[in-house]
Structure formats: structure tokens, C-alpha cells
Design a protein that fits this description.
Elements: E1 9-11, E2 18-20, H1 40-60, E3 64-68, E4 72-75, H2 77-86, H3 90-119, H4 126-139, H5 145-156, E5 163-167, H6 169-187, H7 197-204
Antiparallel strand pairs: 1-2, 3-4, 3-5
Length: 205
């Protein structure tokens, strides 16, 4: 399989138009053209670490605070899913756990794996790794389900002194974690996946 670099071409990362190697600016969108962004891994790791740091308090702090005439109850992400399961809504509880725990953790692992394999110049399964990146990008749009649910509940369940629902501190840190993870994935230069180890070694030299 021949790469764009081997064919003497450079692709624009914004509009995907290919241009002859050495072209400075994309004639379609005006973006600066670079064959490989060698600083992208630094940005990937920076956003990745920020996302992990925000994800830890997102799971330890309350996501939802419910206040009634008799009591005030705070639930974390996992605690809320457990309470939903106790009420018999196992499907909803599973969706909450998948969207709030499985997907974020899976994204952290996937991005770290891609960054490590590129840094080590691994030549194993470039197509599989590229598809893994596409999966990470695709599921990123579903990572805000918890925040959306909290926002909807907060807007709907406002019955004056009878009951009220408001977001907990975890809503902010969870949203930040999702945003940072998306920025980490978007900072990744997927073209580096396709570079053979020997070729990239010569380019770095």
C-alpha cells in the first residue's frame, strides 16, 4: 500500500484535498500544509492527561442532587446507575454505565494505545489502528449523555418547594473530561499511523 507521502502528495487536514509535496498552503481552504505534524503527540498527551484528571473527580463527586420536602439526596454516576437498577430500569442503568464509564475509559485506553504505538513506530496493523481511531471519533458524540440527562431533568423537575433537581459538581468535571478527550483525539495526526518505521526514522534524522 502506497502512502500519500510516498506518492509525492500532502493532504490538507481540514478539507482533505491532496496537493503536490512542497505546497505551502491549501488552495481550497487556505490551511497550512504539513506532511506530518510531529508535535501532535505532545498535544494528544496534554489533553489526555487533562481529561483523566477531570474524570477522577467526575466519578467521586455527586452528578445529581435531588431535593424534596423531606430530604436531599446526592448520587454519583455509578451510584445513580445502581439506584436506577434497583428500581427495575436495568436498560437505563446499563446505558448510563456504558455512556459514563465504559466509553470514557475505553477512549482513554484507545487514545493512549494509538499514541504509544505511533511513538514507538509500530508497523503492526495500521488499518486496524486507523479504524480504532475512527471508532473513537464516532463515539465521542455520545459521551455527553449524562450531562444532557442532568440538564433535562433540572429543567423539567422544578416543582417549587415539592422537589427540585440540580446538577452536582461532577457534571462540570465530566463535561470537561469529555471535551479534553475529544481535543486529544482531534490533535492526533492519523497520517503517522501509516508511516513505515524505517522511513520515519530517516525523516526524523
Amino acid at each position: 500500500m502506497i502512502t500519500a507521502r510516498e506518492a509525492g502528495l500532502v493532504a490538507c487536514r481540514r478539507c482533505a484535498r491532496a496537493w503536490p509535496m512542497g505546497t505551502d498552503r491549501c488552495g481550497r481552504c487556505g490551511s497550512r500544509l504539513v506532511s506530518r505534524d510531529m508535535t501532535s503527540l505532545s498535544r494528544v498527551w496534554a489533553w489526555w492527561v487533562a481529561g483523566v484528571i477531570c474524570y477522577i473527580p467526575a466519578n467521586m463527586s455527586p452528578m445529581l442532587v435531588t431535593t424534596t420536602l423531606l430530604q436531599s439526596e446526592e448520587n454519583t454516576i455509578v451510584g445513580g446507575a445502581v439506584e436506577i437498577a434497583k428500581s427495575g430500569d436495568y436498560g437505563v442503568a446499563a446505558i448510563v454505565l456504558i455512556a459514563s464509564v465504559v466509553i470514557p475509559v475505553g477512549k482513554f485506553i484507545a487514545i493512549a494505545y494509538l499514541a504509544i504505538t505511533v511513538a514507538r513506530r509500530s508497523a503492526r496493523g495500521p488499518l486496524a489502528r486507523f479504524r480504532l481511531y475512527e471508532v473513537v471519533e464516532f463515539i465521542g458524540r455520545w459521551s455527553m449523555i449524562d450531562v444532557f440527562v442532568v440538564a433535562i431533568l433540572s429543567a423539567l423537575v422544578q416543582l417549587s418547594v415539592v422537589a427540585s433537581i440540580r446538577p452536582g459538581p461532577a457534571a462540570l468535571t465530566f463535561a470537561l473530561s469529555v471535551i479534553f478527550t475529544m481535543l486529544s483525539a482531534q490533535s492526533f495526526d492519523t497520517r503517522m499511523i501509516w508511516d513505515p518505521p524505517r522511513r520515519r526514522d530517516r525523516d526524523d534524522a
